[in-house]
Amino acid sequence: MAGTNELKGNIQALVFDQYGTIVDMQAGLTAAVTDFLKKKGWDDEPHRFVTWWRRTHFENSMIDSLSDGPHTPYREIGQQAVSYVMDRCGFSYSDDEVRWLVSEIERLKPFPEVIAALERLAGTYKLAILSNGDVDMLKAAKPHIGFPFDHVISVQAAGYFKPHRATYKKAAEIIGLPPDNILFVANHAFDCIGAKSCGIPTAFIDRRKRPFGHTPYQPDIIVKDFKELADVLC
């Protein structure tokens, strides 16, 4: 791993994943669907439904990128994933319910320590988001996050979902810096691996205290949350 002081000397911008890194996707969606699931007769923990939904969404987005065809919007893949999971559960549902469930992604709130840490980091670095979300979804999410990033970048600009290399390269191009002057920050190992494979240093937010995995693309920094990230970098 690169020395922290050397890394700090090179970094001019931080690029963050949004879903699960900036905003608490699991808790937020679980809270949103709890009453809905009760009415549908779901007799298991609500978070299990959300995990199933998110895993299906992720799998389908990877298929979309690997198929190398026209980019499918994140919202559309999300609606397909929710419909699939509800079909598997045997629920009856309407198109409006599917659209509502996916729209809850736009209203997710940041983890408690995120905004204060971003305010500290903004004094030293450019701050940007690189998200698998669509442009309109990221725009709708801005007031719920409540922080003025220098750039909010959708992977739609690259035509692939993360962790395709094209997404990180496009972000560096938009920000206007070479890869080694950027630090990519994510709560997901796959996202850090994708960025690191492009020559972008990475910071892994290890909220869940899980092993990163055996890969040559190890993160340069591992921290438990955004406060610790700001402590390391400021």
Notes on the protein architecture:
With 234 residues, the protein is of the alpha/beta class. It folds into 2 domains: 4-24 and 109-233, Rossmann fold (3-Layer(aba) Sandwich), CATH 3.40.50.1000; 25-107, DNA polymerase, domain 1. 50% of the residues lie in helices and 11% in strands. It has 10 helices and 6 strands; from the N terminus they run αβαααααβαβαβαββα. The chain has a 6-stranded parallel beta sheet with strand order 3-2-1-4-5-6, sandwiched between helices. Helix 2 (25-40) packs across helix 3 (46-67), helix 3 (46-67) packs across helix 4 and helix 6 packs parallel to helix 10. The two termini are 19 Å apart. The mean pLDDT is 96.
The helicity comes to 40-55%
Secondary-structure-derived class: alpha/beta
CATH topology call of the largest domain: Rossmann fold
Roughly how many Å apart are the termini? Answer: 19 Å
Tell me which CATH architecture of the largest domain applies here. 3-Layer(aba) Sandwich
> Could you say which overall geometry the principal axes of the C-alpha atoms support?
globular
What fraction strand?
Answer: 5-15%
Let me know the average pLDDT. 96
Q: Main traits of this protein?
A:
10 helices; Rossmann fold; alpha/beta; 234 residues; six-stranded parallel beta sheet; 11% strand; single chain; DNA polymerase, domain 1; 2 domains; 50% helix
